[in-house]
Amino acid sequence: MLADHLPILRLRLRTDRLELRLPSTFDEVADLADTAAAGVHDPDFMPFSIPWTEGGPEATARSVAIWYHRAIGRWDAQDWSFPFVVFHEGRAIGVQGLHAKWFAVTREVGSGSWIGQAHQGKGIGTEMRAAVLHLAFAELGAEYATSGSFVGNHASAAISRRLGYRPDGIKHAVVQDERRAEERWRLTRDDWEAHRRHDVTVDGLDPDVLEMLGLD
């Protein structure tokens, strides 16, 4: 089995409504690409620093498929990015990423996400980020988590506040040849503990997975 060689394929995060894991088949990657092609955000507001949704549905779907394979193909124990696919009622509805550099030393993770428009406004965005925060703090021993959202991305900022993040400054990026202001957010272990609202179950976090995360 491929999971014998890539142990991260065994890792599962479960909440009341969601399962977060890596896809086990190409059809699941295709399902995720179809979700993205159906729409991720208002076309008048680009929420991503890399505008991967700007080329229309077909280009967006292809971008998702290529991104997933690239994320796995560049895996590095000291600079990893976990592309969790979010499954709801058996369908791939979005991505909740968790990433870190030299995590064993820094004990800091970052996150990023997207979710299909048909599934927005239902609390799923909060629940899926809560799942990876549980993995980071409760299972991996993180001390800090960071996130970012462009000014005007009210939904993302609201999730950060709801989960206990505090403002952590502003940085600027160039997106589609325009300067954009990004609000930075930081979550401490104490603030995470104080704002926990979701039960999360973690399966498959064995020594082989920890080794792939630089925690052997």
What this model shows, in words?
- By secondary structure, this protein is of the alpha+beta class.
- It has a single domain, classed as Gcn5-related N-acetyltransferase (GNAT) (Aminopeptidase, 3-Layer(aba) Sandwich), CATH 3.40.630.
- 32% of the residues lie in helices and 31% in strands.
- It has helices at residues 26-37, 57-73, 103-106, 124-139, 154-162, 189-194, 207-212, and strands spanning 12-14, 18-21, 79-88, 91-101, 108-115, 144-150, 166-175, 178-188, 201-203.
- The chain has a nine-stranded mixed β-sheet with strand order 7-8-6-5-4-3-2-1-9, sandwiched between helices.
- Helix 1 (26-37) crosses helix 2 (57-73).
- The two termini are 22 Å apart.
- Keywords: Transferase.
Give the helix proportion (percent range). 25-40%
* Arithmetic mean pLDDT: 95
How many separate domains?
A: 1
Oligomer classification:
single chain
Look up the CATH topology: Aminopeptidase
Largest sheet: 9 strands, mixed
What proportion of the residues form beta strands (DSSP E)?
A: 25-35%
- The secondary-structure class comes to alpha+beta
CATH architecture: 3-Layer(aba) Sandwich
> What are the segments in which pLDDT stays under 50 over at least 5 consecutive residues?
none
GO cellular component, one term: cytoplasm
Organism: Glycomyces albidus
Domain N-acetyltransferase: 43-190
Keywords: Transferase
Please summarize what this structure is.
Keywords: Transferase. Residues 43-190 form the N-acetyltransferase domain. With 216 residues, the chain is of the alpha+beta class.
Keywords:
216 residues, single chain, 9 strands, 7 helices, alpha+beta, Aminopeptidase
